[in-house]
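tokens incoming
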């Protein structure tokens, strides 16, 4: 009691975790000077994990002090394999207990092929099961042409499908001058290669406006 009061007064405790008995895993935080205890915890000394039997995936480990134990499952899962030669179902099992772990479908799709000479529908078939297929449409477009005022059109050379898009004149002006008078008045005219050629209202001279090539996807 004397040492306990002295340790409390001078705050000179020397705390250390100690087991309460040789066969117990209960520990108490004990002062080495006065023997006062505070707090507690369980601190097992588990051994290594061991399988319960040769065919089992159940593992156990035992505490060397109190005999308490923990259990877990530790499968040895094999790599994926097909269920049969014609099937695309794959499975993998545990090498120890033989228990099925996972399943999945893994097709081996071939190359894309057109359904017919005039069709743009493509198909590819699984080489294993010949059942699973994927389809898509892949046109072979010709060049863009002017179809009407401010309308571009192009035709597929396979099925004659037509795609139409409006002309996009949202361009970034870099330079705008008249080739005759050098003015920058109002221009009217048509489209060239990365330029817009205008007729100047002031002198009827040739004017040029240069623009970015991203202006219209049908014109690029």
């Amino acid at each position: 009691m004397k040492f306990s009061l002295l340790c409390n007064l001078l705050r000179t405790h020397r705390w250390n975790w100690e087991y309460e008995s040789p066969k117990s895993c209960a520990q108490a935080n004990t002062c080495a000077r006065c023997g006062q205890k505070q707090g507690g915890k369980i601190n097992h000394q588990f051994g290594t994990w061991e399988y319960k039997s040769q065919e089992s995936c159940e593992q156990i480990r035992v505490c060397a002090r109190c005999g308490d134990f923990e259990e877990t499952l530790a499968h040895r899962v094999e790599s994926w394999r097909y269920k049969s030669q014609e099937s695309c179902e794959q499975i993998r099992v545990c090498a120890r207990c033989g228990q099925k772990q996972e399943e999945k479908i893994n097709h081996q799709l071939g190359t894309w092929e057109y359904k017919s000479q005039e069709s743009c529908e493509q198909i590819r078939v699984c080489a294993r099961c010949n059942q699973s297929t994927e389809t898509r449409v892949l046109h072979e477009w010709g060049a863009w042409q002017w179809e009407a005022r401010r309308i571009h059109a192009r035709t597929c050379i396979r099925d004659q499908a037509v795609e139409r898009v409006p002309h996009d004149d949202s361009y970034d002006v870099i330079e705008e001058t008249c080739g005759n008078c050098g003015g920058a008045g109002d221009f009217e005219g048509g489209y060239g290669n990365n330029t817009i050629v205008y007729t100047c209202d002031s002198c009827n001279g040739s004017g040029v406006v240069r623009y970015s090539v991203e202006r219209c996807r049908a014109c690029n």
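note: The helical segments are 2-10.
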